[in-house]
Amino acid sequence: MLQGIYAISDEILTPYQEIFTMLSKAIKGGVSIFQFRDKTHQDNQIESLVTELMDYCKQEGVLFVLNDRIELAMKLQTKGLHIGKKQEVNPYSLDELLMIRKSYGGILGVSCYGDLQLAQNAKEIGADYIAFGSCFTSSTKTQAKVISLDLFQKIQGIKKCAIGGINQQNIHQLQNADMAACISSIWKGDITQNILNLKRNWKKI
After folding, report:
1. Which residue among 34, 63, 96, 128 is least enclosed by CB atoms within 10 Å?
2. Cα-flanking dihedrals φ and ψ of residue 109, to 5°?
3. Is 0.85 topped by the overall pTM?
């Protein structure tokens, strides 16, 4: 399940009144994983939407991942949870990661940016996958530092997700990643065709 094109929602590019239609088109193109990311609303404001998206993804055979909202993920027993930094500032410590892993029984992904030690910590506590990025200059996170793609070869024994600036022209460079997470290159334009093009150009799936 942890392989292929990984679609991430965006509050501007995937407005909530259109998100199910857009997700349907992404699934038609062959997306494997869908992450719901919302940075502005309170948990209780999006709980019903998260529940509906979870159910829809389950029905369609796509892995649903909730971004950063640990308590909500535990409450709803989401299939997947992805965590980055605390309040977008500091990475989780090894002890904090271990506590999250012990409390959350679903698929756990951890953002490691360009830090091999963070990746080792995530592997040590039993995370299911790590994410390295930004792999290329990102239009979504313009301040994100671009990493060396050699990182994907420097850690083994855990699934690896590439993120940041991935598009149809550069995805072929990610042969050492198991998943390619995209935002703009999926949701802008013809969603189904965008994913088909990404898969074709990646040449590994």
Report:
1. 96
2. -115, 145
3. yes
CA–CA–CA angle 63, 110, 195 (5° rounding) = 45
Crossing angle for the helix pair 43-60 and 19-29, to the nearest 10 degrees: 30
Three-state helix/strand/coil letters over the chain: CCCEEEEECCCCCCCCCCHHHHHHHHHHHCCCEEEECCCCCCHHHHHHHHHHHHHHHHHHCCEEEEECCHHHHHHHCCCEEEECEECCCEECCHHHHHHHHHHCCCEEEEEEECCHHHHHHHHHCCCCEEEECCCCCCCCCCCCCCCCCCHHHHCCCCEEEEECCCCCCCHHHCCCCCEEEECHHHHCCCHHHHHHHHHHHHCCC
Distances (CA, A) of 163 to 44, 61, 101, 191: 28, 22, 22, 18
The predicted-structure confidence for 26-70, as pLDDT tens digits, reads as follows 999 999 999 999 999 999 999 999 999 999 999 999 999 999 999
Q: What is the pLDDT of residues 127-136, one digit of tens each?
A: 999 999 999 9
